[in-house]
Design a protein that fits this description.
Layout: H1 2-31, E1 39-43, E2 47-48, E3 51-52, H2 54-68, E4 74-78, H3 89-99, E5 107-110, H4 116-130, E6 135-140, H5 144-154, E7 158-163, H6 169-189
Parallel strand pairs: 1-4, 1-6, 4-5, 6-7
Antiparallel strand pairs: 2-3
Helix pairs in contact: 1-6, 2-3, 4-5
GO cellular component, one term: plasma membrane
Organism: Fervidicella metallireducens AeB
Protein name: DUF218 domain-containing protein
Length: about 190
């Protein structure tokens, strides 16, 4: 009988926790709203050579929209150079924004980070240097909950705007599932 309780407990843990996390991620993504801020931070994502991946392009398009609609006067593009990338994610974003007509003096490049934590930690350092007090943080919707926890941890007064890339729905779903594991890691390791 004792083994039955253990099995039931294990089943509950491995079914309830993922459902709770998925609900947490989805509800955050569906309810957050950007607020007027000093800057917009676009979190990095894969670059194919020198070209933004579809996820990154959508993030930058959203950051551009935030900038155009007055949610921030400056845009911080944050992301280092990963394996297989010819340039940093930040430089790819900067080039894309310039091609859309954004003036270079409104784009701030953070190209040293290799993780979400570093994206936000380094962006907060830039915010401090520039005297910025608040930011709209842009990423994929699945990434917003964890980004909000990290932003709070590093001291960013943030609001959020997420994107969902419909053309890559399978990758989005995979990323939502992977993000549950990343959230568990965040909660366990801090």
């Amino acid at each position: 009988m004792r083994n039955v309780y253990k099995v039931v407990l294990i089943i509950l843990i491995f079914s309830v926790i993922p459902v709770f996390l998925l609900i947490n991620i989805l509800s955050f993504a569906l309810t957050v709203k950007p607020q007027k801020s000093d800057c917009v931070i676009v979190l990095g994502c894969r670059v194919y050579g020198t070209v933004p991946s579809p996820f990154l392009k959508c993030r930058v398009d959203e950051g551009y929209r935030m900038l155009k609609e007055g949610y921030g006067k400056y845009i911080i593009v944050s992301g280092g150079k990963g394996k297989g990338e010819d340039i940093s994610e930040a430089l790819a974003m900067k080039n894309y924004l310039i091609s859309k007509g954004v003036k270079e003096d409104r784009i701030i490049v953070e190209d040293k980070s290799t993780s979400t934590y570093e994206n936000l930690f380094n962006s907060k350092r830039i915010m401090n240097e520039k005297g910025f007090n608040s930011a709209v943080i842009v990423s994929n919707s699945f990434h917003l909950k964890r980004s909000s926890l990290i932003a709070e941890k590093v001291g960013i007064n943030g609001s959020y705007s997420g994107v969902f890339v419909r053309e890559h729905v399978f990758d989005e779903v995979k990323s939502f599932l992977r993000e549950m594991l990343a959230l568990i890691k965040f909660y366990v390791l801090g």
